[in-house]
Amino acid sequence: MIENEGGCFVIKLIGVAIVIIGLLFRFNPLLVVLTAGFATGLVAGLSPVQILEAIGQAFVTNRYMSLLILVLPVIGILERFGLREKAEDLIRSMKNLTAGRVMIVYQIFRQVTVGLGLHLGGHPSFIRPIIAPMSEAAAAREGANSPAWLERIRGMSASSENYGNFFGQLLFPAAGGLLLIKGVLENAGYKVDLLKMAEYAIPTAVAAAVVAGVRYLLMDRAIRAAGSNEAGEQK
After folding, report:
1. Which residues have CB under 8 Å from 129's CB, separation 6+?
2. Is the whole model's pTM more than 0.90, yes or no?
């Protein structure tokens, strides 16, 4: 407990403490987050009804996030009827397309589309059913098809989504992250322009694309070396 300037006693960061303790002891994450939210609201002087209203308003505002629940069964049905196999067949027909190049193309695609405000990617809808199988097939063609390599390729495929989405979303002036920053700064008395903020995100997005591209090209080199070593051992 810390005494503030008005003489009132407040508990600082109780919600963060509850989340850390709850996750540390592996309690149900949803229950932990709700408990932390209620505790933070009570400390802020809100009534239980006001806290429920705030949670309901947040859910309505971000209801588009629940679309993930609808996407998962669709992807499952597509995989059941051969989407993964079709992706593998496609990559096998492209002789010059390596695992790293698949990831580079997807990362640039993701970065450009999210920068335009279009949500045309994601781990469940693109990475798992399409990008990862294509990358695995390309690596297998080079001879790198061990379980360890497959796990590494899946992780790198997931990183192409992270690079593209995370560093590309702030290129869109109406992105939620920029709107949040603008709201916080203006509440603190600082006037900011969304277009100018988006411009400042361009160097970071370019640097992320370059770093990711180098990583994927280095991975391609390692895949070729692993394939050559495996072929030599078999001989």
Report:
1. 75, 78, 79, 83, 84, 87
2. no
What burial letters (b/e) apply to 140-149, b meaning 16+ CB within 10 Å?
bbbbbbeeeb
Q: In whole angstroms, what is the distance from residue 36 CA to residue 20 CA?
A: 10
What are phi and psi for residue 157, nearest 5 degrees? -60, -45
What's the one-letter identity of residue 170?
L
So what's the pLDDT on residue 12? 58
- Six token digits for residue 218: 């280095």
- Whose tokens are 């592996």? That residue is 26
The ranges assigned to domains in the chain are 2-61, 83-234
Question: In whole angstroms, what is the distance from residue 198 CA to residue 178 CA?
Answer: 8
3-state helix, strand, coil in the chain (%, to 5): 80, 0, 20
pLDDT exceeds 70 at position 184: yes
